[in-house]
Amino acid sequence: MLSRTGTDAAAVHRWTRLVDGATTTLPAGSYWGSAGTDLIVSQRGAVFTLTDMSGATEPVVIDTSAFNTAVTRYTVDRVVGESLLMTATVNGAEEFHLVSLGENGQVRDRKLDLAEGSRARFSYASGPDSLAVSYAEPIPNGYYRGRLSTVDVATGAITASHYFLPEANYTAIAVTPTHLTWVLGPYGSNPQLQVLSRATGSPLATTPLVRRETIGLTVHHVGDWVALVKPGGGTATSPHPYTPLVARSLDGGADVPLLAHAGSVASSPDGSLLALGGTLAHGEGLYRIAPDPVTGKPIATLLRTFNQPSALMVLRENLPTTGTFDFDRAGGKLTVGWTLSRFNARTTLTLTHTASGRSAKVVQEPREGVTAQSLTWDGLYKDGLPAFNGAYTWTVTAVPANGVGPAVERKGTFTLTRAPRPHDFDDNGSPDVLARHSDGNLFSYDIRQVWGLDAYERPYELPIGGGWNGYDRILAAGNLGGTRTGDTVARDKSGVLWFYEGKSGHKAPFAPRARIGGGWGIYDQLATGSDVTGDGRPDLLASDRAGVLWLYRGTGNAKSPFATRKKIGGGWGVYNQLTATGNLAGATAGDLVARDKDGVLWLYLGKGDGTFAPRTRIGGGWSLFPHLIGIGDVNGDGRNDLLAASRDATDDTVLHLYRGTGQWKTPFAPAQTDTVEQLAWARHLF
């Protein structure tokens, strides 16, 4: 059997001996096989050499240079027995010619007797005495109709002819000394496989085919059976009903499965079929297909193995390990991968948060020739919400894209963890903004998710509870009590300050409130979330109505989160908003921004001892924003950002994100804006 791998100049031809499966790699060049024989043809210019690979006969040389010229170029279409079926373009029309050596050793060139002006299309052969050709035959008014004709190879005469109406599938045609088979109506709603008797010209069998799936289908006869397959299914990237090679009886009945796929099929001298393909049981190799001597049904027998599985196999793998997975240390991503036995598989990584049931999925589509598949999870759920910390289950699945064989799967668990983040209330490593409705209900929204959605898309909304209208100040305080997630303090209208400790929960982020103390109504402005004393704990700053700024150092004790106040200095009454931003300029201490009554924003760099360096002007025009929020690091670049909110003409909330630069002279980059319809109801953001 002659086989080829590669294309064009890189093609490699091999001859496989059927008796023992031994394979010989042929010298570089162009080769054709003669169906049903041990002959192969090689070409050197216009000279063709027929070699009997069994060694039974001497090579035959056919020199076509007398007529195969630059003016009239002959091209080999196929080899039938010891004859070359060639095509030649004459007067604009492609003709079929049978070229062989006569008894006198002279080269014979016999043009097939087709209607004048016919255009050659394709040819078909299953042995040295079986040949059919398809062509377009001219009819009046400049139109053509399809013809399929059988040919006497010895004489070149047309022995029978059939119309292709209304259309033809030129690949699904087979001819033997006794049968002629093709597909009726391949593009219609009811395609059928028709088998004719060559002796009578009458149909022996007409059986249905799958609608719209006959393109590329090939048919081959083996005894009183027809083998059906679409070659190339082994490397296909989508399933096809004719990827498996099956045999269909002319007497009816169910198809008999033979191979999981086949790359090519050829006729053997003994009437059997030879197929390069595979089965799930025996893998890739060369198979002989012939009737079972006992049952009469065709069976596939492995002649030579290629030592490769047909089923999808995992050769190497890099999968998550059980235990704790530090997402920060991994650079904010989880990468898994494996090397598969073939490239055409679709790999999916699915991760599910055990407590919430939320999931993420990463899919790697097949890439031609690439068996090493890698999937990287960016830490987001399907809706763009950063994933919660906690226990996860994971599944990595590779599904054969061509439908050949079962999927392979691996499963496991791990616990996702990150370092605590400021302004993170649901323990997912991403800052959240608190939004209060006019009815007093408080909700949390993940800013990283909100920023990634379109205006009309609904972000994840974490309900916190009602009754928050009783507070005139609500502050995201950072980690005051030692838990993983951020805490909140709120002042009621009677001047009592309350503490809401973060619970690291994705459902109820805060513990029940605890009273810090009364007398806080004397303060006009409150700001918390920055560590201005350099001890690693967030502190609270408060300016009274006389313009004096006071420091309440964080203690790290949830029962008593703040130490006794300490006076910082006067002159702060010029500001109508103070916002603790954390570290903006690269030093260890937290910083503060303050907006004066003219709308100018000023930066106070923390010195680490509770005091600040002299103020520097950031810029004017900040009166536009009723809310300025030290939101933390939104984009994951390690710098704290500033979030501002305004409203547009339709009363939708417009968020303005000022990304931190790390430079004290210009601490914020120009604003990026995002309109969020879903926050239109929110009258207060914290």
Automatic annotation (TrEMBL):
Keyword NADP among record annotations: no
UniProt entry keywords in alphabetical sequence: Signal
Q: Which InterPro entries match?
A: FG-GAP, Integrin_alpha_N, Quino_amine_DH_bsu
Keyword NAD on entry: no
Q: What name goes with this protein?
A: VCBS repeat-containing protein
